[in-house]
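Researcher: Go.
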Amino acid sequence: FYGIATLPMQAPKAAADELERAISKLNLKGMQIGSNINGKNLDEPEFEPVWQVANEHAAFLMIHPNNVAGADRLKNYYLNNLIGNPLDTTIALEKLIFEGVFDKYPQLKILAAHGGGFLGSYAPRMDRSCYISPQNCNPNIVLKKKPSEYVRQIYMDALVFTPEALRHLAAEVGPGQIMVGTDHPIPWEEDPIGHIMSTPELSDEDRLNILGENAIRVLGLKP
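Model: Structure:
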């Protein structure tokens, strides 16, 4: 097991200093943060000190949803988790893409929980956004590639429940971008290894990568 840090993201300079300490002195492999910081999206300029340190070290960054959008409409049936969690992850990732954070900090290694939210299933819609509604886009931001193409540099866990969903996720982002997901101790997926092994479209190499080799590579481990 290898540890990653938690950071005081509400104080970005302190968070950047803590990330530097965690990596340089504690030998931690990265950090985990929420999908928003007290309601602020991750692309806000005030968080750039954290991205700078993460980019410098090519640090691993896991995004897990919190304080989800629209929670007042998601009060029953655990919808705040069922819909709210993947929705807020999707918002976080799309804001990072559209605001050019991945272009500015190309060494970021971001893993998004729960299969990357809804992004793995609906990314191509992003490519039409600024074409359909240019008045809602920042003319000063010119991305280096189509918005949907950034999805293939985001890591996602395999917590998508069915073999067909995992097959689709692997087709969209590539099996080299997927890692085991359990959400432990919450029993969303009671057999995360069997889930990967029972997806017939995955090759043995794909399974090996998802079950460990991708994490070894991304985290820079030497097992």
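Model: The beta strands are 5-6, 30-34, 36-37, 40-41, 60-64, 109-112, 155-157, 178-179.
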